[in-house]
Amino acid sequence: MNAALSQTLIAAEEVSKEFLIPQGMWRRLTGQPRLAVHALNGVSFQINRGETLGIVGESGCGKSTLARCLVRLFDCDDGRVRFEGQDIADLKGADRRAFNRRVQMIFQDPYSSLNPRMRVREILGEALSVHKMRPRAQIPARIAELLDLVRLPSDAADKFPHEFSGGQRQRIGIARALAVEPDVLVADELVSALDVSVQAQVVNLLLQLQEKLHLTVVFVAHDLRLVRHISHRVAVMYLGKIVEIGPTEGLFSSPRHPYTKALLDAAPELDPTKRNRTVAARGELPSPINLPTGCLFNTRCPRAFDRCFVERPLLSDRTPAHRAACHLTDFGAPSLQNLEAIS
Amino acid sequence: MIPALEVRNLTTGFKTANGWVTAVKDVGFDVMPGEVVGLVGESGSGKSVTLHSILRLVHAPGIIEGSVKWQGRDLLTMSERELRKVRGGEIAMIFQEPMTALNPVLPVGIQIEENLSAHTALDGRQRAARARELMDLVGIPEAARRLKDYPHQFSGGMRQRVMIAIALASGPKLLLADEPTTALDVTIQDQILKLILDLRDELQMGVVLVTHDLGVVAATCDRMAVMYAGRIVETGTVVNVFAEPHHAYTRGLLGSVPRGGAGRTMLLSIEGTPPGLASIPPGCSFNPRCTFATDICRKETPMLAEFAPGRLVACHHHREVAAAGSPVA
């Protein structure tokens, strides 16, 4: 038990989150129920110390909401997030501050996540002094160290965010997160606003820093190639649920959920000789206000059968490392490819 | 075969508060009928300005020079009146963000019919019928009912389909697509790209596809041109360029995209950032970021030259780059 506790750093247990939609006068007067966007519908997983968990999905799947629940920018409506076994909603005072320091978030948009009126020195210094990381006299030296860590020139400290390119700004965002010596980095679409060649620089930097500082990383992104490259394990989300979770290579080479398979087929291969003209997934994401009954993917699934419209599949426990929430693969069938060979 | 579109020495500049800025410099390429040509580059490389310049969609104080021959006629010198028949007629264009390109206060049916009345001789009843056919053609379910819907009632993918329906209304021979799937999710991107390819086959339409995504190029284009700092640095068939890149920038771009099977290794990144248009370095504009650069690269701008049939590159050391191998082969 103790060994398991120290292995698992963060555990999400049936996390649910909904956002109420502003209601018009008519609906209020006629007493109709308030509509809600169901952003997260019971998400459970664990993150082990030192690993990178990739969370992938299309827009509206709830991946950013989940990231925000993990760092407690949002409180979950239902379920809980545990950090070292403690429910983060119960943390108070010094414990809460310690949690805030140890779990850091890096945001997607390098243009709006840095205060345009603060110099880099002030941006990094604020993080250092709020958490009392260093005595005042040592702060300038620490700032220089941080800039060096993310490979920015030392004269960057006196500049304003607008003087940097997008990639450099993301480095400032990383430096700010690292300033407080966290255990966990939650990176929400860290490089999606950047050009391809700059993306690669930031990805390389993240990999090196993780190694050096023994960080646990939650890497939220929509880019499958990137998630595959960075993550030890991957969770695929669809309509606020994890539909498949498992070790990266296993999940990519033998997906067990039809949505994962569609997502992989839809992502264009970097090989012009391997072209495929069939459409990977027809239809579009159903409304997160009125969720489909049964399996959430049944409106688009090419292989849905009766049971899928009645019963929502759970993440199967059959193989603890690689799990999928699909009735088709629930019967011990090893992967979808094999299923296709049978049918 | 005769090219449908011939672009030669296309140069587009803008006057700004900080002086003259050249966004596109000496760009030239051909598009054959029914061919998909990809213009690839990062932000600020001039790929979108190139596309806009083809149809003279560059506003003052922008100036376009060079020639754009469309079926023998030069689009850059013809009168505005003549150009209007070509623009949106024989050559159609679709844009990245369909919500801003569509009129938010008109039902989509009327927006499709607008193009029909501008470029075809159909009467009102025929136009309505044709609009419905077009909505069917681009795969919008319940086309007849949705003609009366406004753009905000459509999802992003469906809006892009509406834009394609409008573009196809005139029966174009060439489609200019400016990052048509960048704002879309990957499963929807897949649907739209395959729709464009199906329409190309059906209508024998040439396509110029501007994108920053090499995966999209690999999946859809026949030939590609890589742009950097306003110039084309390499062209060739997609298969050829991926198998043997001759420009260090192309090679770096290919290496920057993560591939399966090499998890958690360092990517072959390109150091530095693309130059601003006002501060393009002398010589080869890529030289400060290039690992192959020597003295000549800092002094002399390499010209785009053919080194094998259909393969052009602008690099002093392209043999060395090719010998270094392709990161995706």
Structure characterization notes:
Chain A has 2 domains: 2-253, Rossmann fold, CATH 3.40.50; 255-343, no CATH class. Chain A is 32% helix and 20% strand. Chain A is built from 12 helices and 11 strands. Chain A has helices at 2-7, 25-29, 63-70, 93-102, 120-130, 139-149, 166-178, 196-213, 224-230, 248-253, 258-266, 336-342; strands at residues 8-20, 36-48, 52-56, 78-83, 86-87, 103-106, 184-188, 216-221, 233-238, 241-247, 323-324. In chain A, the strands form 2 sheets. In chain A, strands 6-7-8-3-9-10-11 form a 7-stranded mixed β-sheet, sandwiched between helices. Chain A has a 4-stranded antiparallel β-sheet with strand order 2-1-4-5. The two termini of chain A are 43 Å apart. The relative contact order of chain A is 0.13. The model of chain A is unreliable at 1-5 (pLDDT under 50). By secondary structure, chain B is an alpha/beta fold. Chain B has a domain at 100-171. Helix content of chain B is 34%, strand content 23%. Chain B contains 13 helices and 12 strands. The model of chain B has no long low-confidence stretch (mean pLDDT 92). At the A-B interface, helix 8, helix 9, helix 10 and helix 11 of A face helix 8, helix 9, helix 10 and helix 11 of B.
List the helices and strands and how they pair.
The complex is a heterodimer of chains A (343) and B (329).
Chain A lengths: L1 H6 E13 L4 H5 L6 E13 L3 E5 L6 H8 L7 E6 L2 E2 L5 H10 E4 L13 H11 L8 H11 L16 H13 L5 E5 L7 H18 L2 E6 L2 H7 L2 E6 L2 E7 H6 L4 H9 L56 E2 L11 H7 L1
Parallel strand pairs in A: 3-8, 3-9, 6-7, 7-8
Antiparallel strand pairs in A: 1-2, 1-4, 4-5, 9-10, 10-11
Chain B lengths: L4 E12 L2 E13 L4 E5 L6 H8 L7 E9 L2 E2 L5 H7 L4 E4 L3 H4 L6 H12 L4 H14 L5 H4 L9 H13 L5 E5 L7 H18 L2 E6 L2 H7 L2 E6 L2 E7 H6 L4 H9 L38 H5 L5 E4 L2 E3 L4 H6 L6
Parallel strand pairs in B: 3-8, 3-9, 6-7, 7-8
Antiparallel strand pairs in B: 1-2, 1-4, 4-5, 9-10, 10-12, 11-12
Helix pairs in contact in B: 4-5, 4-7, 5-7, 7-8
